Amino acid sequence: MTVYRPEARSAPRLEGGLLRSGRTTLPENAMKTALLVALAVTPVCMLNGVFLSHDVIPKVLTEFFATTALLFLLPHWSRGIGRLWNSTAGKLFLLLATAQCASLLLSTVASHQPGLSVFGSVWRRFGATQQLAVLIVALAFAGTAALDRQWPDTLFRATTISGGVASIYGILQYLGIDPFLDRALYRIEYLGGIVRPPATMGHAIYFAAWLTPVCLIAIACATSDDSAAWRKLHAAVASLSVTAIFLSGSRGALLALVIGGLFFMLRIQGRHARSIRRQLAGAALIVLVVISAVTFSPAGQWIRHRFVQWREDPGGPRLAVWRESARIVAANPVLGTGPETFGGEFRKIESAETSRAYPDFYMETPHNALLDAACAQGLPGVLILAGVFILGLAGPSPRSQSGHVTQAGLQAAIAGILISSAFVSLTIVEAIYLWSITGISLALSLADVQTAAMPVNRMVSRVLLLPAMVLAVIFLATGIALSVPDALYAGLPIAIARRDADRAGWIYAKASQWTLGLPVPGYELSISQQFASLARALVNTPDTAKAWTLSADAAQSAEKYGDQRYSAAYQASMLAITSGDIVRAESEARTSIALAPNWYKPHLFLGKILDATGRKQEAFTEQQLAIQLGPGR
Predict the structure, then answer these.
(1) Which residues of 276-308 are buried (b: 16+ CB within 10 A; e: fewer)?
(2) What is the DSSP letter of 332?
(3) Which of 29, 42, 419, 571 would staple 256 via disulfide (CB 3.0–4.6 Å)?
(4) What are the pLDDT digits (tens) for 545-585?
């Protein structure tokens, strides 16, 4: 079989700030290391036992540290931005990044919950701060790739290693081997048991969504890397990642992988294109045979159960959420409701049918990236995101044969992200990959000419260095405000289990201090519920009143800053009853109903309150409404 071998890449690099031969400087090495960390290390970061949000906070910290380093190293990559600006596609990319920055800031200022929009919800931490960091990282990727067209090869190798490690971990999780996480976190006791390995990503759908572009890039590198050993490694990781995606049970990711693979085969050009297509078709057939054998083996029972679930539940709540979310966009077409506010906003407009079908299901996102952007940022947000996809898929092609294959892989990765994002919203990792791959792809297509505006670019970068350092400090402060309380709260369940009210109270107070006075949404709703459980366990002891007080305080904070304010108000209503404050209990129950009109629980509870205060007719009305909205109707 003929193996495509790209041309040698040892030629000297051009001078003048474009591509240089010889050793790189320490700042350049630091810059490239920060970028490698952002793209290859961030996805596999997980610290179980250190952070309560063991999969999200480590990724946020890694992203922030990389962003901070890149801001201090701004003069070393901003020169590449000048090269991008001198090309039509590069200019469009920079304009889209600028528009996204402006849209995020405006939507956050006008947000229905500014704190939530700035810092993000606890489940994904994808607020304006994290999204701005994504844009900075992506610009640094594009600028660096524009200055050194050979360096992305190292980057792709790093992503292959990262994807390989995660794929192996995900496969082991499926097989019942997991030294880090409790298997109960990703096993569903349904239809005889379903296992959906999340690897380091918190949930299988986000794991598979990230692994899709990694797999497609690995496939491209398996045919274009100039090292035979690395070509073999890329091919091996591509096979492992396909297997891991399949075992995750994510239909959207499998569809994205198939369409991305077909896109790559159609996109590659040149005299070796036919040979590459034959090799890929043969490899795909082998992988298909292997995963089919696994499916019908005893080890494939979990995935067979998942197939049954696919047939019985073709879309879950997605179709209803997509249909009803249009009301959020229609009501807020220009600025949206703000990043990360979807969960609470959807409860306000959720139909009785959907609420009845999924009464206690928290719709944290619309499970569609474009719709998520439209709800958060209005029509500008969805147009910007669509523009990134279009630009990434339709960007210019490089002149070299190896460049054609590499860029076909990058564009296939973008196609994979597009398809998978139709079924899942973006997280930090997917957003970094989308924006960064698009920027790198455009940078690699630049003509090999020097940029006349380079000296001016250096001057501009020096002027921007001071505000960049201020922004870096903001990212560091945000990282502290998010991570330290999260680490402290990791010890709260232990204190609750030991009925140690003093220790639990100290953790809560200390975590509140480390938010630095910022309106950071945290775990206050869950904490309120835990303190209430502690109070019930400590009945008739000196610490009982303290536990109830802490529970009420946490509920109040959750109602003010959290992403489930309707549930926090319901919790506050129940707590008011325990303290004998019937007036506040009724007020909080009505607040919960206003925030979630078709949720049956506050109607039921309000009916009990009204009945206890002698308002029998009103109580009957609320209780009948609760019955109509409750599950099983």
Answers:
(1) beebbeebbeebeeebeebeeeeebebbebbee
(2) S
(3) 419
(4) 999 999 999 999 999 999 999 999 999 999 999 989 999 99
Half-sphere exposure (Cβ direction) of 616: Cα atoms closer than 13 Å: 0
pLDDT at residue number 17: 45
Both tokens assigned to 39: 């793209």
Three-point CA angle 177, 181, 185, nearest 5°: 105
- Measured distance CA(602)–CA(597) in Å, rounded: 9
Q: What is the DSSP letter of 73?
A: T
Spatial separation of the C-alpha atoms in residues 48 and 59, rounded to whole Å: 13
Cα gap 43→139, rounded to integer Å: 19
What is residue 38's DSSP assignment? I
| Structure-block tokens of residue 479 | 């990282």
Q: Are 71 and 151 in a shared domain?
A: yes
Is residue 60 included in any domain, yes or no?
yes
> CA-CA distance, 210 to 172, in Å (whole number)?
18
Query: Are 219 and 263 a contacting pair, CB within 8 Å?
Result: no
Using DSSP's 3-state secondary structure scheme, residue 240 falls into: helix
Would you tell me how many other CB atoms lie within 10 Å of the CB of residue 506?
Answer: 14
Task: With beta carbons less than 8 A apart as the criterion, state whether 152 and 144 touch.
Answer: no
CA distances from 611 to 487, 580, 599, 624 (A): 44, 15, 19, 13
Pair (332, 456) in one structural domain: yes
Shared-domain flag, residues 465 and 530: no
DSSP state of 21: -
Q: Any idea what the Cα angle at residue 495 is, between residues 176 and 528, rounded to 5°?
A: 95
Residue 625, domain CATH = 1.25.40.10
Q: Of 434, 469, 504, which one is at a domain's C-terminal end?
A: 469
Burial class (CB within 10 angstroms; exposed 0-12, middle 13-18, buried 19+) of 456: exposed
Give the Cβ contact number of residue 611 at 10 Å.
Answer: 15
432 and 535 together in one domain: no
446 with 334, same domain: the answer is: yes
Residues written for the chain: 633
pLDDT digits (tens, 9 = 90+) for 440-481: 999 988 865 444 444 445 555 667 888 889 999 999 999 999
What is the pLDDT confidence band of residue 398, given thresholds at 50, 70 and 90?
Answer: low
Domain assignment present for 397? yes
Q: How many domains does the chain have?
A: 2
Q: Which amino acid is at 255?
A: L
> Quick one: residue 19, left, alpha or beta (phi over 0 = left, psi -120 to 50 = alpha)?
beta
Domain assignment of residue 318, given as a range: 31-469
Q: Do 252 and 322 share a domain, yes or no?
A: yes
Residues 462 and 588 in one domain: no
Domain boundary residue, one of 469, 502, 536: 469
At 347, which amino acid appears?
Answer: R
The tokens for 482 are 């998010």
What spatial distance separates the first Cα and last Cα of the chain, rounded to whole Å? 63
Indicate the SS3 state at residue 605: helix
Cβ-based neighbour number of residue 494 at 10 Å? 12
If we measure between CA atoms, which residue out of 499, 560, 557 comes closest to residue 531? 499
Is residue 209 a part of any domain in this protein? yes
pLDDT at position 21 is: 39
- Quick check: is 547 in a domain? yes
Q: Is 206 in a helix, a strand, or coil?
A: helix
Q: Which two tokens stand for residue 359?
A: 């009464």
